[in-house]
Each structure stands twice: as structure tokens, then as C-alpha cells.
Write a structure and sequence with these properties.
- With 509 residues, this protein is an alpha/beta fold.
- The chain has helices spanning 2-22, 32-56, 80-93, 126-135, 164-170, 186-189, 208-212, 218-224, 256-260, 270-282, 285-288, 314-325, 340-346, 350-367, 500-508, and strands at residues 69-75, 110-114, 174-182, 232-236, 265-267, 292-295, 332-338, 376-381, 385-386, 388-390, 429-434, 466-469, 475-476, 480-485, 495-496.
- The chain contains 15 helices and 15 strands.
- It is 32% helix and 14% strand.
């Protein structure tokens, strides 16, 4: 009996220790070298399996040629639920029921799911996820293209990780980064900068200690670099290149745009961009080989649905970049980011996220008419997801932004909206958390709040209902989708670690 009691106490103690341990953060012990090797080995093993399978079928190895060109497209925050909602949204604008529509890249022959966690986060940050995609190494929250040993905000000398852009440039290819966000924002910055804090877009966000230790802000890194691998950088974010005296953010009183104009071309409007593209078609090689910088807005570029004429669209920026990139006989590497999908979600406004996804869909559809898929690998994915969800049993073809109208007992669409337990209508789109949550502090009759004045669910600023009240909606932690077409696109299948994608792209080159 005593022996039984002792065993019971021991078992209880073990259970208690396990429960306590579960509350502690888990530290991943892998180094950047191990992350890199893991991704490399995964791609090599996948290639070996593909060869074995094709030999068994007595087939030649499909797409065995190298990819002369790489186009890597990122919908920032474009999770699976965003794709579903966007395909319905775009389809319904074309007069369809919507659900049967397919976005341009959803028709690519190869697809995969991608894990998105950072080394130190279960639900990830953009700096860590895009760094994994661009360097082949997982890293920490808020860190730009530096290894996992980096402590955020500490300016200790670190080994800068080579990026996909660096590898492409070493092969003699032309390179470009095009984004609708600030060019110094976390996602685009990973292609050319190395920073222990994503917020160091300009010197105003840096501590004096970091400056004294020799750390350089992200905008300065791009302008001052003597070995930058980017030939073209287009997007928003003028404020981080200008001193406060000119309305910018910089405390060092430097005008980085003027500095840049000593080494390359600079444009700040749609008309100037189109003129630059036309010049590139007729200028001599010396002029074409100068790098290009386009900053088309003070901060992020405006959302697509309200973008002013002086700001180019994502497709226009891509078109001008491609005109130059295609001149290089060695090929090119082009990274495209639809950066404001993420911002629409953070605001809890699905309309903004869906119209940004629509712009990405249209840009990729245009791209497919401009490149040779025999020599160009196109990969479309997201860096992470968001908490957007679809539910409520709406009838087929129900407006994706509208209130839920279900079917009656005989399967016919109801004429009036479905009601919740408070006898209120609700939309099929909602968020797990965000500013759209209904709380006791909600103010009535104010724009974007749920008082008596509401409810234009189709308004761009309408905030979808959220469960957990927060100042802004958070990222989601689930896997994201990836779509691929072109040489070695068959490497992308199954469920992939995010940093493996870099190794597959590098291998394809």
C-alpha cells in the first residue's frame, strides 16, 4: 500500500513538473549554420526523390534546366482565408457567384503549404518570416537578415546573411525589389539590409548607443552601400530618406535622396517612372547600369482603391522594372510585395485587404503574359497569415462583404439576413481579434463603431466584427499557401519549412 502511495505521489509530481515546464518558453538550439544546412539538405533530398520517381516512370526529368529568371511574389499577410475571400470578391465583381473563380496564381501546377513560425515566436513577425525566405535561415522577431544569435535592438557585430538577391547578383543577374509598402519596411528591407531591429528605418528610431556602436539605419544602408545587390528599388517611404527640415524623419539632417542622385536615377511619381522606363529602352548601357530608386509616397503607398494618379500601381512599377531586367542576357531576380494586404487586416478592414489581393492577382496575371515560363520560375506565397475567418452558412453567391443570408428548409436563399442570439445580423467575414470587437466602451454613432448609425458593411473603412478587443488585429500562426510554375517548380509540394523555399529558389538558379 505504501509502495502504491509513493508511486502515486511520484506520478503526480511528474505530471506537475510537466505542466509547469509547458508554461516555459522553449529555446531552439539550432544555429544559423544548422538552419541553412537543414534547408539545403531538404531540397537535395527532394530532388533525389523526384529523379527516382521519374526514372520509375521511364520519364525524362521535367524542367531540369536552370531557371534563368526568378520572380518571387509575396502577398504580405495573404493567408488561406484571405485567398478564399479574395477569389470570391474578384469573381463576384465579374458577375459570377464567386466561389468557382480562381485567382491567377491559384492555377499554377504546383503548390504547397508553408510553416511560418520564427525561432522565438509561434505566431510570427514579418521581419523573421521574410528573412527566412530571403536568407534560408530562420531568425527572431524583428530581426532583418541576421542570424538567430542576434538580440533585437543590440548593436553587436553580427554576421550578415547573404540574401537571394546577393546570390542572383553574383551570377550576373539583374535584380529588383518592388513593394507597395515603405521600401525600408521589414519585408522589402530583408532583400538589401541587415538590422537587429526592424524599426530602425531611419536614425530617428535608433538609440544613441546603437549609433555610437556603428549601427546604420536601413535607409542609410541602401544609399551608402558600395556593394548593394539591388539594381532597382521601388515603393513608398520618402520620409526615412529626408531630414526633419524637409518634413522627413531623419535627425542627422542628411538628405539621402540627394546623396542617392549622385550614384543613380531617382523618381517620385507615376509620370517620372514611366519616363524612366522609356529612357531605359533607348539609353546606352552605362546609363541603364545605374541603379534606380523610386519613392512614390511619404509613408506607405495608398491603398489600391484610393491610390492617387501620382502614385503608380503595383503592376506599373513591375512593368518598368521588368523592362530593364529583361535586357540582361544572364537573367534576373525580381521580388514583388503586395505590402498593404497586411495593413488592411491589421486595421480589421477586410475590404482593404481584399482589394490589395486583387491588385496582386491582376499583376501576376499580367506577368504571365510577359515572361517565358520555359526559363522563368514564378513563386507566389505569403510571409504569414491573419486571423480573418469565413463562416455563418451564407447561401452560395452571398456577397462576400455582406451580411449572411442563409437558405431556408427547402434550400432556397432567404430574403432577410440571418440573426445572432442578440437578434442582430452579422457578416460572414470576421476576425479573431482586432479593433472591431464589441465592448462596453464602444462609442455609439461614431464612424467605424457599432452604434445605431452603423452598418455599411461594404464601406472600405468598415471594421469586421472581432472576438478579442485589441487596438489592431494580429497575425495568424497557421500555414500559408505557395504556388509555383516554371523550371523546378515541382520542388514545391507538401508541407515546407519556410526557410527551405530560399534553398529551392537558389537551387533552381
Amino acid at each position: 500500500m505504501r509502495k502504491f502511495i509513493k508511486l502515486s505521489l511520484l506520478s503526480s509530481l511528474i505530471v506537475l513538473l510537466i505542466a509547469c515546464a509547458a508554461d516555459l518558453p522553449v529555446q531552439d538550439s539550432k544555429t544559423s549554420k544548422q538552419w541553412f544546412q537543414q534547408g539545403h539538405d531538404a531540397v537535395v533530398n527532394r530532388e533525389r526523390l523526384l529523379i527516382q520517381q521519374q526514372k520509375k516512370l521511364n520519364q525524362d526529368i521535367q524542367s531540369s534546366a536552370k531557371a534563368k529568371n526568378i520572380i518571387f511574389v509575396v502577398g504580405d499577410g495573404m493567408g488561406v482565408s484571405t485567398l478564399t475571400a479574395a477569389r470570391i470578391f474578384v469573381g463576384q465583381q465579374q458577375g459570377l457567384l464567386g466561389e468557382e473563380f480562381a485567382l491567377s496564381f491559384e492555377q499554377f501546377p504546383h503548390s504547397a503549404l508553408v510553416k511560418t513560425y520564427n525561432v522565438d515566436l509561434q505566431t510570427p513577425d514579418s521581419a523573421g518570416t521574410m528573412s527566412a525566405l530571403m536568407t534560408g535561415v530562420k531568425t527572431n522577431e524583428g530581426v532583418i537578415s541576421l542570424p538567430e544569435s542576434t538580440v533585437r535592438g543590440q548593436c553587436n557585430p553580427q554576421h550578415a546573411l547573404p540574401t537571394l538577391i546577393d546570390y542572383a547578383k553574383a551570377k550576373g543577374k539583374s535584380t529588383a525589389m518592388v513593394t507597395t509598402a515603405r521600401v525600408t519596411h521589414a519585408t522589402p528591407a530583408t532583400t538589401y539590409a541587415h538590422s537587429s531591429d526592424r524599426n530602425w528605418e531611419s536614425d530617428n528610431a535608433m538609440s544613441q548607443q546603437a549609433k555610437d556602436q556603428g549601427c546604420e539605419d536601413i535607409a542609410s544602408q541602401f544609399v551608402n552601400s558600395k556593394t548593394s545587390s539591388l539594381d532597382i528599388l521601388f515603393g513608398g517611404g520618402r520620409r526615412h530618406f529626408l531630414p526633419k527640415a524637409l518634413g522627413g524623419k531623419r535627425l542627422d539632417e542628411k538628405n539621402l535622396i540627394k546623396q542617392w542622385q549622385k550614384k543613380g536615377h531617382y523618381v517620385d511619381s507615376s509620370s517620372a517612372l514611366l519616363s524612366l522606363g522609356q529612357q531605359a529602352m533607348i539609353e546606352d548601357e552605362a546609363q541603364i547600369n545605374k541603379p534606380w530608386l523610386g519613392l512614390f509616397s511619404f509613408s506607405h503607398m495608398d491603398y489600391a482603391y484610393q491610390r492617387p494618379p501620382e502614385q503608380p500601381s503595383l503592376q506599373q512599377m513591375t512593368e518598368v522594372a521588368l523592362q530593364r531586367l529583361k535586357k540582361n542576357p544572364e537573367g534576373f531576380a525580381l521580388v514583388i510585395e503586395a505590402g498593404r494586404i497586411d495593413h488592411g487586416h491589421h486595421a480589421g478592414m477586410a475590404y482593404k485587404a481584399l482589394t490589395e489581393t486583387q491588385e496582386l492577382h491582376e499583376t501576376v496575371a499580367w506577368l504571365l503574359t510577359q515572361v517565358d515560363l520555359e526559363e522563368t520560375l514564378i513563386v507566389v506565397t505569403a510571409d504569414h497569415s491573419h486571423t480573418l475567418t469565413l463562416g455563418g452558412y451564407p447561401t452560395r453567391g452571398n456577397p462576400i462583404l455582406g451580411e449572411v443570408k442563409g437558405n431556408d428548409s427547402e434550400g432556397y436563399p432567404e430574403s432577410s439576413p440571418s440573426l445572432d442570439q442578440n437578434w442582430q445580423p452579422y457578416t460572414s467575414l470576421s476576425y479573431r481579434d482586432g479593433p472591431g470587437a464589441i465592448t462596453s466602451n464602444s462609442k455609439e454613432n461614431e464612424e467605424d463603431e457599432r452604434g445605431d448609425k452603423v452598418l455599411d458593411v461594404y464601406a472600405p473603412n468598415y471594421k469586421q466584427v472581432a472576438l478579442v478587443p485589441m487596438d489592431y488585429e494580429t497575425h495568424g500562426g497557421e500555414d500559408v499557401a505557395l504556388y509555383a510554375i516554371g523550371p523546378w517548380s515541382q520542388l514545391f509540394s507538401g508541407t515546407l519549412e519556410q526557410h527551405w523555399i530560399f534553398h529551392a529558389l537558389k537551387y533552381a538558379m
